[in-house]
Amino acid sequence: MKVTLDAFEQSIEDNAEKFIPLSDTEKNEVETIIMRKDHSALIGKIGVTDTELRPSGTVLIDNEIYDAKTDGEFIDAGRGVRVTRVKGKKVFVIRV
After folding, report:
1. Boundaries of domain holding 14
2. pLDDT tens digits, residue range 20-35?
3. How many domains does the chain have?
């Protein structure tokens, strides 16, 4: 069974307290880390495809790699893209 990184991270976030008892300070730190993963601030940003998007792949935006998807369009690696929306941790892009 293949599990995506996003699914694995979400599972850890959803079940962290079941496996690891956390102090209030540690809970606050975990919440801060989770909040940093909100990609809505990427909407409108320009980046470059790191891999081919067929239609999923990865993009480089502000020197960070993100999982990305198009609405069905295939985009070659090394092409400019703009983030149009975010759903969870997946960013949706169009070619620019």
Report:
1. 5-37
2. 666 777 766 666 555 5
3. 2
At residue 46, the 3 state secondary structure works out as strand
Residues 47 and 82 in one domain: yes
Q: Which residues of the chain have pLDDT under 70?
A: 1-22, 27-37
User: Tens digit of pLDDT for each residue in 85-94?
Assistant: 998 888 999 9
Determine the 3-state secondary structure of 60 from DSSP. Answer: strand
Two tokens at 78? 């090394």
The packing angle between helices 24-36 and 5-19, to 10°, is 170
Cβ-proximal residues to 59 (8 Å cutoff; 6+ apart), any chain? 47, 48, 49, 50, 53, 65, 66, 68, 81, 91, 93
| CA gap 67, 60 in Å, rounded | 9
